[in-house]
Amino acid sequence: MRILLVEDDNLLGDGIQAGLAQNGFAVDWVRDGEAAEHALKSTEYDGVVLDLGLPRLGGMDVLNRLRGRGSDVPVLILTARDHVEDRVRGLDAGADDYLVKPFDLAELAARLRALLRRRHGMASPVLQVGAVMLDPAAHRVEFQGREVAVSAREFALLQELMLNAGRVLSRARLEERLYGWGEEVESNAIEVHVHHLRRKLAPEVIRTVRGVGYLMPREASAGDY
In this protein, which residues make up the domain named OmpR/PhoB-type (predicted)? Predict the structure, then answer.
C-alpha cells in the first residue's frame, strides 16, 4: 500500500514515515503543498496523510484541488487545530478522516487500514481469497488454515494481489505499489517475491499471464492445490 505523507515538521514526518513503514506501508514524504500537488498528479496513491498547516500551499487547498480533479483517494487530515469548525470544514471539503496532534502511530495506521477497506468495499478487516487469508492488522498470512511466515515485501505483494483478485497486475504496477521514492528496486524483484510466495503457499495461488503480469484467481478449484 503506497501512502503520500504531507507534513512540514521534520521530526514528526520522520517518525510517521518510519512508523507506517513498520506497518507495511510504502511512504512518500513531501514537506509542502506544492510538492504534494505534484506528487498527487504524477503518482497513484492508496491514501494521503495530509497536514493542514503547510508552506507554499495550505493543506485545505491541496484537498480542494484533489477533489476538484475528481480523485477519490482517501485523505486523512492531521492537524493541531482541535476545533469543531475546523473538523467540519475539512470533512465537508472531502476529507475521509481527521486526527488531532498529538496522536498514536498505531491509531494512525489503524485508521488508514479502515479507510483502505472502505475504498475497496471490504466489510471484514481480513482478506480471504480461496485458501489464502491475510490479516493486515496482525500482519498474518494463513494458507489452508496454517500460518505462513512471509517477509514484509512478500506480505505487501500478496495483499495487493488479493485486493485485486481476478485482475492482472503488471510488474510496473506492482513495483509502484510496493516501493516508495528512493528505494532501490532490482529488475527481477517482483519475480523473486512471486517465486517465494508460490513456494510458501502453492504454485497456482499466483498465476503468470505472459507478457502482461500476475493474477490471483478469485476462486481456486480443489485441484489447484
Answer: 124-218
